[in-house]
Write a structure and sequence with these properties.
The protein is of the alpha+beta class. It folds into three domains: 168 residues, Beta-Lactamase (2-Layer Sandwich), CATH 3.30.450; 64 residues, Single alpha-helices involved in coiled-coils or other helix-helix interfaces (Up-down Bundle); 127 residues, 2-Layer Sandwich (Heat Shock Protein 90), CATH 3.30.565.10. Strands 2-1-5-4-3 form a five-stranded antiparallel beta sheet, sandwiched between helices. A five-stranded mixed beta sheet has the order 6-7-8-10-9, with helices on one face. Helix 1 runs antiparallel to helix 2 and helix 1 runs parallel beside helix 5. The longest helix has 64 residues. The chain is elongated.
Length: 371
């Protein structure tokens, strides 16, 4: 092995192991792809991490502009060469990917790719993802030496990706605990405000006949308290709006949350959703928070083996339904499960929430809101 080769391998090792300082899996993937593209002088580079639904949980690429991505459309699904590499788990080096019998098709706006080099990223027998390069800038296409180098690169990338996943999973658990703590504090603060509002309204009602002037003063206080409560709720909604909603929208944010819970808990958690119209930001936050609270109840208290989440758009209404096959409960004893808070959230955006449960028969929580 020549000294130049030693220097290249050392650079590969340093570059890939250094990505463990990043805080998210996606950042790790981006660094890996950029490093591979520069190292092997490729015009295009991409890395895909498969999900369990025939698509990719993460897919990052270099060499394609944002405008091109918009024209190409949704992320690729596991078909053609990508599917073959995921299934076979072995490297592929081709002079022209389009002539390979495993090649499927590209969207119309997809850039033309010819010479191709792809390598699986593996953790033992498990394929964590695939990294591939296309259109080597120097003449002659990718060589056997390039394949060996990318294979070594992928082995280091697997270490970085596993470490990033472990870090992110720990952070997700911490975020769940913090979210639950904040929810309890907010629940107490809002409950106190609403309790004061209710008492003042009752006092005003009792004084209407005997002391109209005092009743009028109390009603003015009710109006003031109601305005303060509304302002607080709106401020909370804005402050606690997850950044993921701005980046991905409600359906994708909830999908990612469900997948995280499915990994963290022994229960099977599944998610189905319809294509949604543009939604009011306050509605998105309310639906997400109700879903999180209902899922927390199902996973921590019901003993369910399966929890189903469904987000549907029907007849101008957005409907969230969460069903579990757990032990259920007597609805008369359900005040401790946050159902009052969930109903308050639903009503704050003009929605309605219903709950169906009985001992031994599981639980169904449904939120409907006009959009």
């Amino acid at each position: 092995m020549t000294p130049d080769r030693d220097e290249i391998l050392q650079a590969v090792s340093s570059a890939v192991l250094a990505v463990t300082r990043h805080l998210s899996v996606r950042e790790v993937l981006q660094v890996i792809v950029r490093s591979a593209q520069r190292l092997l002088d490729a015009r295009y580079a991409a890395l895909g991490v498969p999900d369990e639904d025939g698509s990719f949980a993460e897919f990052v690429a270099e060499g394609i502009t944002d405008k091109q991505w918009d024209a190409i459309g949704p992320l690729p699904r596991q078909h053609g060469m990508l599917a073959a590499m995921l299934q076979e788990g072995v490297p592929a080096r081709l002079a022209d990917v389009r002539k390979d019998p495993r090649f499927g098709w590209w969207p119309k706006a997809h850039p033309v790719m010819k010479d191709f080099l792809g390598v699986p990223i593996r953790d033992g027998e498990q394929v964590l993802g695939i990294i591939f390069l296309a259109n080597k800038r120097t003449p002659g296409g990718f060589t056997q030496e390039d394949q060996e180098l990318l294979t070594l690169f992928a082995a280091h990338a697997a270490i970085a990706l596993i470490n990033a996943r472990l870090y992110e999973r720990g952070r997700e658990l911490a975020m769940l605990e913090e979210r639950n703590r904040m929810a309890r504090e907010l629940h107490d603060a809002v409950t106190q405000k609403l309790f004061s509002l209710r008492l003042t309204a009752q006092a005003a009602s009792a004084m209407l006949k005997s002391s109209p002037d005092k009743a009028e003063a109390e009603l003015e206080r009710v109006q003031k308290l109601a305005g303060e409560a509304l302002a607080e709720l709106r401020a909370v909604i804005v402050e606690l709006r997850p950044a993921e909603l701005d980046r991905h929208g409600l359906a994708e944010t909830l999908r990612k949350h469900v997948r995280m819970l499915d990994r963290l808990y022994p229960s099977q958690v599944s998610f189905e959703f319809d294509e949604l119209p543009p939604l009011d930001p306050e509605i998105e936050v309310v639906v997400l928070r109700v879903a999180q609270e209902a899922l927390h109840n199902a996973l921590r208290h019901s003993g369910a083996s399966h929890v189903e989440v469904r987000l549907a758009y029907e007849g101008g209404k957005l409907a969230l339904t969460i069903t579990d096959d757990g032990r259920g409960f007597e609805q008369a004893d359900s005040r401790g499960l946050g159902l009052i808070s969930m109903r308050d959230r639903a009503e704050s955006v003009g929605g309605a929430m219903t709950v169906g449960s009985s001992p031994g028969a599981g639980t169904m929580v449904r939120l409907e809101v006009g959009v």
